[in-house]
Amino acid sequence: QVQLVESGGGVVQAGGSLKLSCVASGNIAMINAMRWYRQAPGKKRELVAVITSGGETNYPDSVKGRFTISRDNVKNTVYLQMDSLKPDDTGVYFCNAFRSSFLMYWGQGTQVTVSS
Prior knowledge:
By secondary structure, the chain is an all-beta fold. It contains no helices and 11 strands.
């Protein structure tokens, strides 16, 4: 089992920045990648950042150049630095610990609201 706790969400004006944190605990040695997803009201959950166990990162075009995922292995924490935020970035952001397509864990989510 892996437990994930997100924090750092809030309300920010367009053009501003926020940094989300996700603290992982439990059997984290089994995890192959950490991911951040977001879900806006009435929309599907979408992937916004990935960092693999080897440190490789990947982003969709919608956030590339604005979002940065990183991790601190000592603190078992993954971060999502979000800059140049837009109203379309509004949603609930979820941390995800990926073992395989059949085994992954989710945090409870943290709300990010970007006002225009």
